[in-house]
Amino acid sequence: MGEVMIPFLLRAIVAIFIISINAAITGTFTVFRNVSFLVAGTAHAALAGAALALILESLGFHVPVLLGGVLFAIFAAISAGYASGRGKVGRREDTNTAIAISFALSMSLAVLFISMVREYAARVWGLLIGDLFLLSYSDLAIMFITTLLVIAITALFYRAFLYLSFDAEAAIASGVKVGLYDYLLLSTIALSVVAIMGGVGAILVFAMFVAPAAIAKRFAKSISRVFLLSFLISFSSGIAGIALSFYLPFSPGAMAAVMVSSTYFVSVFVKK
Amino acid sequence: MEALMEAVVIKDLCCTYDGFVAIDRVNMIVNKGEFVAIMGPNGGGKTTLLRAIAGMIKPQRGYVKVKGEIGYMPQKEHVNFEIPIKVREVVEMGIMSKKKKFSLFSKLSREEKELVNNALKAVDMLKFVERNFTELSGGQQQRVLLARAIATKPDILLLDEPFNGVDLPTQEKIIKLLDNLASEGVSVITVVHNVSPLIHHVSRIALLNRELIAYGKPEEVLTPENTAKTYGIPIPTTVCKEGYIHPLFGDIHG
To answer: What range defines the domain where residue B14 resides?
Structure first.
C-alpha cells in the first residue's frame, strides 16, 4: 500500500463518519417509525431520478444527477406517506405495502430510464453499488452539507417525529399536525438516504441504515443510547470494512454491510 | 343556566371512514363534571365517537361543540412498544404537544415539570419516572398513559378502554381517580367493555351501535330492550345491595 492511497483512505474514513451520523439519526427514526423498507424504496427512486437527469442532460437540459435523485426519492417517500395516511385516524393502508408499491414503480421507472440512456448507464449503476474509495472531495462536501441539513431538521422537529412514531393517535388528539410532520420525517429519511448513496450504493444503504438502529434498539435502555449505539455500530463496521478491503479483494461498503447485517443476526441470537 | 354547564354538545353527528358510516344520528350532551360511560359492541363506533369529540375526525354531518381543553387517552394498542422511551418522556409528550415544543432543545418550565410530577403522583407512578415505559406491566403503562392525558389539566377527559389489560387493584385506583376528577368539575367520558366496576360512579351511560340506542342514567338505559338493540341479545341485570343496577355480561362483551 503506497502513500498514494492515503487521500483515498482518509476520504473513505470521513465518508464512513458522515454515513454513521446519518445511520444514527435517520436510521433510528426509520426503525422507530417502522418504515425500514422506505430506505430501499427511496434509494431506488433516487436511481430513477438520477437516470431521468441523465436523459434530460442528453437532450441538452442540465439537471444535476444528485438533484434528480433527491427529488425522486422525496417524491417516493411522500407518495408512500400519503398512501399510508399516517395523519388520518382510522382506516389506512399499511405503510410498508404503500412503500413496496412505490418501490416497484420507482424501480420500473429506473430500468425504463436507464434503457433510454445506455451510454450513461454506468453512472447510474455506480449509484446502485457505490464505492467508498472513489469519493471525491466534492462528493464529501455534498454529503456533509446534506447531513447538516438532516441534523438541523431532526433537531428542530425531534419531538414531533418521536411522538408521531410513538403514538400518532395521541399526537393527533393533542393537535399535532401529524400528517405534515410525517411527510417531513419521510422526506428527511429520503434526503439522508440519497446523501449517503454515493458512498455505499442504493443496495447497501439499506444495511447501513436499518441494521445498526435495529441492533441498538434491542440493547439500549433509552432513546439517546439508541442514537449513540447506532452510530458506534455503523462507524466500527465501516472502519472494519475499510481495513479488511485492504487485505481482501472486496468492496469496503460491501464488507461493512456484511458485518453490520451479521451483527444483527448475532444480536437476535444473543438477546432472544 | 343549564347551557353554561354543557361541556360537550353533539348534534346529529355522522362520521364516516372512506365512505363507510361508523356512527350516525348521534345526539348527546355531557355536562361539566359528569362521568359518562360509552358502551356498545365491537365496531359499534365507540372509538369514532371519542375521536369526533377530540376533534380528530371531521363529521360528515352534524357537529360537536366542546367547551374547554381535551385530554385523550387512546387504546394502548396504538402505542409503538419498539421505542425505549422513559415514563417521564411519555407524560411530557402531552404538554410538549399542546405547547408545540418540538425541538430537541425545548425544555419544560418549572410549572410544567410540576404538572408532569403531579400527574404521575395522581396515578401512583412517580417512583417509575425514570423507568423505561416499555418495561412496565400493562396496568402500569395504562396509568402512565392516563397521567399523560391528565397532565395538561383538561376540562374534558376522553378515555378509550382504560381498563384493558389492567389488574383489579389498578382498575380501582383509576376509577377512584376519575371519580375525583369528575367531582372537581372535569367531564370524564370513557369507553368501556364492562361498565359494572364503574356503575357506582357514572352519572350517565351511552349505548352505541352505529346509532345512539340510549343515553341517560344507568337504571333508565340498561333495560332488556335497549341492550338487545345494542348487542343483539338482552343483557340480564341485577341490583346490588346499594341499589345500583349491574349488567351481567358474562361472556358477552363488546
So the answer is: 1-68+155-254
